[in-house]
Write a structure and sequence with these properties.
Helix content is 30%, strand content 21%. The chain is built from eleven helices and 15 strands.
Length: 334
């Protein structure tokens, strides 16, 4: 028999493990262990019950009858992966040596609203690169910044050089479409360059017990203005359904800044800080355990509505134009 260990996956240091109930390393034991881990530590049960009627106890009954101690590991993995899919959460994954379960419908069921070929056309060949940032000045004196992953860290020096170069532009486009997230520390560093004064950007809560409603009070999250060069002129942040996790959080933070408008499609969501735990068989499950909210105390787990809903037009694509970029350019030119 093995123990289940719960530990924080990102951002916070490990401070040891939390012992949990013991389960046998059998299909039934692994099923019970997984269901219990989620039942006691997942953070969006009430929200998802309200949004689409999720009943985790009903999910238990639905999948328990599918588990047999004679089933293969492949069959067990498939059943457990489908059970986790009931949470409709891109931060929930089951990882084994042979496979990795995932829920991607937060983006797959919607228009892409992004084109790699159009990105290359707007960037051209003479764009600048500062760590994970690609940037240039468009011919109408609008700055264009492409940032495709918060996994690519950006330092203060990178931001100082980029903003100095774009300083005389009349407006700025930050294109984070298809940015699946990454490091929340980079979100803070980048957002602080667009902050004029200490600004409330959201809230966070922590689990305080094993009950579905056992949470701390909401803790406010603020962004302080950077002590370095800051941008106070108009900004458009471009989004689509591929904007998830840390990129979703960046969208939420930037929406709290008065000079910023969000343009494009609804983001993909992912507002739970993920934790990880292991099953008796050694498989690892990742799940949302710490809920984050916008500055209005509203959940952004299922994404953020843009200020201007704009879809990529097929006619524009055929002419080599990005509808969303062009809309932002007109908005910034006013």
């Amino acid at each position: 028999m093995k123990r289940i260990f719960l530990y924080l996956l990102i951002l916070l240091p490990l401070h040891g493990c939390v012992d949990e109930e013991q389960f046998d390393d059998t299909p039934q034991g692994n099923f019970e262990a997984l269901w219990k881990i989620i039942d006691e530590h997942y953070c969006f049960f009430d929200y998802k019950q309200h949004e689409y009627g999720l009943d985790w106890q009903q999910v238990y009954q639905k999948y328990k009858v599918r588990v047999d101690d004679n089933m293969s590991t492949t069959q067990l993995f498939e059943v457990l992966g489908k059970m986790l899919g009931e949470l409709r959460d891109g931060h929930v994954n089951l990882s084994a040596a042979h496979d990795y379960s995932r829920y991607w419908q937060w983006s797959e069921n919607y228009p892409a609203n992004f084109s790699d070929s159009l990105e290359r056309r707007y960037l051209g060949t003479d764009y600048r690169i500062a760590a994970g940032l690609k940037y240039r000045i468009l011919d109408d004196n609008i700055g264009y910044v492409r940032y495709d992953s918060f996994q690519s860290s950006v330092g203060e020096g990178n931001l100082e050089e980029m903003l100095s170069y774009l300083l005389l532009c009349r407006g700025l486009i930050i294109d984070i479409r298809d940015n699946g997230g990454g490091n929340l520390n980079t979100v803070d560093v980048l957002t602080s360059r667009f902050c004029q004064e200490k600004t409330l950007v959201g809230y966070i809560r922590h689990k305080t017990g094993k009950g579905h409603n056992d949470f701390s009070e909401m803790e406010a999250k603020y962004i302080e203005p950077s002590s370095n060069l800051r941008w106070y002129k108009p900004v458009c942040v471009l989004t689509n359904r591929g904007v998830f996790s840390a990129a979703n959080e960046f969208t939420s933070y930037m929406k709290a800044m008065p000079q910023v408008k969000i343009v494009g499609d609804h983001t993909g969501g992912g507002a739970g800080m993920p934790f990880s735990s292991s099953l008796p068989c050694g498989w690892t499950v990742r799940f949302s355990a710490v809920p984050m909210y916008d500055h209005h105390s509203q959940s952004i787990e299922f994404g953020i509505e843009p200020d201007y809903q704009v879809q990529l037009s097929e006619a524009d694509v055929l002419q080599g134009r990005d509808t969303i970029i062009e809309f932002a350019r007109k908005l910034l030119a006013r």
